[in-house]
Design a protein that fits this description.
The chain is an alpha+beta fold. The protein is 38% helix and 27% strand. The chain is built from 6 helices and 7 strands. A 5-stranded mixed β-sheet has the order 2-4-5-7-6, covered by helices on one side. It has a two-stranded antiparallel ribbon with strand order 1-3. A hairpin with a 3-residue loop joins strand 4 and strand 5. The protein is globular and about 50 Å long. The structure holds adenosine-5'-triphosphate and magnesium ion. The site of adenosine-5'-triphosphate has 22 residues, from helix 2 and helix 5. It comes from Porcincola intestinalis. It is found in: Membrane.
Length: 165
């Protein structure tokens, strides 16, 4: 459905800010333009919540999470940046796999199933988008998500949906 992405992100932040504050993590949002896009709200909310939750969980004391929104003619972009513990290079290719968790003592102390990013990735792919990670150990992590403003289903996809498969 046509969705105001700014509102969707604000709702997520409203829910997660109290959790972040308990850990003295500051969350900020940067967005310049209203973004309207055809998305599955539930899936997109879950996808972005997972990224921000990770930014809070794998952070340092008095750290920050910065979310920024952008848009052009074809896509909108969501960037989630944190000042956290970072992800070792050799793990970066695997973190989107189900149940994969970085085997560092600090992230092991923190609870989790290792499903969050797998869910995020599949939700982004359902929207025909792309997700990337940039990270430096000990410095922080940035996830970027790019999603088409409007995706027109192929005839094949429409037929599959109509037949309920
Ligand atoms: P769940 O999200 O299911 O509660 P999880 O957070 O462990 O558990 P994912 O969200 O899939 O699982 O993340 C996989 C692993 O990638 C994490 O266990 C952590 O080691 C690493 N990771 C993910 N996001 C970050 C981040 N922002 N900073 C540092 N490490 C991260
Ligand atoms: Mg997670």
């Amino acid at each position: 459905e046509d969705t105001n992405i700014n509102d969707l992100i604000n709702l997520i932040l409203k829910r997660l800010r109290p959790i972040a504050e308990k850990q003295q993590i500051d969350i900020s949002l940067e967005s310049y333009k209203p973004i309207i896009a055809q998305v599955d709200r539930t899936k997109l909310t879950l996808a972005i919540s997972n990224l921000i939750e990770n930014g809070i969980k794998y952070n340092k004391e008095k750290g920050w999470v910065h979310v920024s929104l952008n848009v052009d003619n074809t896509y909108f972009y969501i960037k989630v940046e944190d000042s956290g513990i970072g992800i070792p290079k050799e793990d970066q290719d695997h973190i989107f796999e189900r149940f994969y968790r970085v085997d560092k003592s600090h992230s092991r102390e923190i609870g989790g199933t290792g499903l969050g990013l797998a869910i995020t990735r599949s939700a982004v792919l359902v929207h025909h988008g792309a997700i990337r990670v940039y990270s430096r150990l000990g410095e922080g992590t940035t996830f970027t998500v790019r999603i088409p403003l409007k995706y027109t289903k192929t005839g094949k996809e429409q037929a599959a949906e109509a037949s309920g498969t």
